[in-house]
Amino acid sequence: MVEHGQGDGHACPSVFDDRRISKIHPSHYAGAKRRCEEVRVAAREQHHPPLDGVELVTVLAALAEPTRLKIVRMLAARDGERAWKDIDLPIAQSTLSHHLKILRNAGLVQSRTEGTRCFISLRDGDVSERFPGLLETVLSCERGALACGDTVSSDTGADAAAEAAVRPV
Questions:
Q1: Domains in the chain, start-ordered, CATH in brackets?
Q2: Which among 36, 58, 69, 122 has most CB atoms closer than 10 A?
Q3: Distance separating alpha carbons of residues 152 and 89, to the nearest angstrom
């Protein structure tokens, strides 16, 4: 081993010294380096399950949480995709990441990375094909409505809400 500064121009040897490892067996080193790069690339890519394997219960459970429902509404209101940073919710980034992972695993959203940016889009066409009318029904329901079909007019809003509250289910 050559110590630092002993005239051969090499840096101090370490546990991960390329020269030492490559002397063991160069093909093993090249293969290990290639596998590490493949793992790094795979870690950046997101897994999107095929919708034919997603159950309705999984989709409904993902949509049952109010924050995830807000995210789906944001994505549905804007055709195309949104940058991850443009999803403006008062939650931590780690929490947003968790919610997007649940929506992705339920088959509702699709993620795409471009450089250092991540873009999210709603898989509304695929979801509508697998579960016809589900997204339209869920998105048509306003937050706080007692029933999805109820509409409250602006002039008698309080009366209609009171009637809906006492109506048997």
A1: 1-44 (no CATH), 51-144 (1.10.10.10)
A2: 122
A3: 27
The length of the chain, given as a count of residues = 169
- The Cα–Cα gap between 24 and 150 comes to 74
Cite the DSSP H helix spans in the chain: 18-24, 26-44, 56-63, 66-77, 93-105, 124-130, 134-140, 157-166
Query: Which residues are 36's β-sheet partners?
Result: none
3-state SS assignment for residue 65:
coil
CA angle 88, 89, 90 (to 5 degrees): 130
Which helix (H) or strand (E) covers residue 120, if one does?
strand 117-122
Query: At 111, is the secondary structure helix, strand, or coil?
Result: strand
Residue with tokens 């995709």: 81
